[in-house]
Amino acid sequence: MTSFPIFANDLAPLLTLDASSLPSLALMAEHLPCGLTVINDTMHVLICNQRCRQLLGLPSTLFETGPPSFEQIIRFNAERGEYGEGDPDRIVAEWVQLANEHRPHVFERSRPNGIRLEIRGIPLTGGGFVSIYNDITQRNQAIEDSKRYAAYLRTVIESLPQGISVIDEHLNMVLWNKAFFEVLALPESLDRPGVTFEELLWVNANRGEYGPGDPAAQVAQRISLAMQFQPHKFNRTRPDGTELEIVGKPMDVDGQVVGFISTYTDITPYKRAEAAVRHANALMEDAISYSPTYIWELDADGCFVFIKGGEKILGYQAEEMIGNPLSSFLAPEQGIESNAVLSDMKRRRAYKNGELRYQRKDGGIVWVSSNGHPLYDDMDKFIGFRGVDVDITELTQARSELERMAWEDPLTHLANRYRLLDRFELEVDRAHRNRNHLSLLVADIDHFKSINDRFGHLFGDHCLRMVAEKLQQSVRAVDLVSRFGGEEFVVLLPDTNLAGAFKVAEHIRQAIENNPIKHQTPQSSETLKVTISIGIATSLLDQPIQFDDLMGEADEGLYQAKRQGRNRVISLVPPPTT
């Protein structure tokens, strides 16, 4: 696979000085934070990026008539005193002699304007040199920035889930990542230097990737479209059912197209889950811009020292986050001590797919899936964490909605039977642990069938919602009100003895009785007094607590309340006297 290194030792094996590769190499060089030159075996300068010209103070006139020779640049510098006092001819001869020795070199020199440069060079196979120029006037920061930038460039493309490919203006494949081959299920025979975009098209056409039709016509059509170098975004379904989103953008230098960069994203899981998938509309200027991700680095104290891509997800500019602790950007609801990601960070352990809740700058909540690993310096001293976060807010919201639907009664929005049973088990454990009582109320609307028969089921549903609302308003936040079925409701009262349960039940009964429900029609208006009957059951201390036992006892109390005239509270165990 083609990589994108930054230091001379890394660049040298990749630079063949093939004429067709020079535009792409020159384009990459312009994105480096340092100066770079490539000199061929005839000692002519093939590449000298703008940063190098700035650092060396080379005028544009030196390049107007074509690439200058190494000797021309040395002579220009010697004549303006870059190498100190001395005869320019002698100085040029000494530099040319050193270059002809074809040896790796590292040295520093100070320019007359006070800038201190570090120059690292390595000879190329077949002749020539590649050299890196760094302004080390502020040495430590420059070196650190250069190393960090190189690390991200080397790893970010391979770590992205999207396939990435780059073609030059002649439709030669010049860059791709592993995910590109995996997403498109391409044969390994194409994973080699020199492969062309047309070869890739033929493989796809011959195996039916573009549907029925003449493969030659399909290839010709796509080559014609590719040569237009127009931005595009579209979905394509592969024969195996995989759904791909393909986004592309031309690369240009000074208005001249020099290639095309594309991303390939497998969106099949999102389609199958019928979840809305939003992808960034902005075309990629670097690999991060293509996906809902950002990369970050923390120092040993947990403060951001680097973040890229965070603005589109969190709403903060990088400078607003750098120097501040990660924890200060988390949502208030995010548990600090119990979170697995933060726990792994505290223990300096790598982690994958951990979930965190951030609070956006605008106050919104963002869920991210976080992947990170600890960093150590050359002395094995812990210096922080580095990682990648992916925005999973929509997926998390969809999952939460499904959970809500599974645990909630759709008519009254109270807890349903399943949530009641789940919560009951938790409260039983807590009651045993704390040696507290647990009480259960079973409430039933009196004469509900008559209400339905007289006023219709729509009004009956309205009555259920009104009763549910009063029930919810009449209990504590820790209590659970559920619709058990039909017109029957069950109220779970943690840490509540029989006397307390009677007090709550009577309060509920009076609240329902004292709030009649209005039946309104275009022809008439009528106020209906609704009442409920309630049965109570309370657990005994240090005795096993079974749902069926409490439910059966409370249900029997409800039955007796109905038999004794309704609109009352009954327990099989007499209430305590005061």
From TrEMBL:
Pfam family, one: GGDEF
Listed SUPFAM superfamilies: Nucleotide cyclase, PYP-like sensor domain (PAS domain)
Gene3D superfamilies: 3.30.70.270, PAS domain (3.30.450.20)
Family annotation (InterPro entries): Biofilm_reg_signaling, GGDEF_dom, Nucleotide_cyclase, PAC, PAS, PAS-assoc_C, PAS-like_dom_sf, Rev_trsase/Diguanyl_cyclase
Domain GGDEF: 436-574
UniProt protein name: Diguanylate cyclase (GGDEF)-like protein/PAS domain S-box-containing protein
Residue ranges annotated for the PAC domain, each copy included: 352-404
Molecular function GO terms recorded: catalytic activity
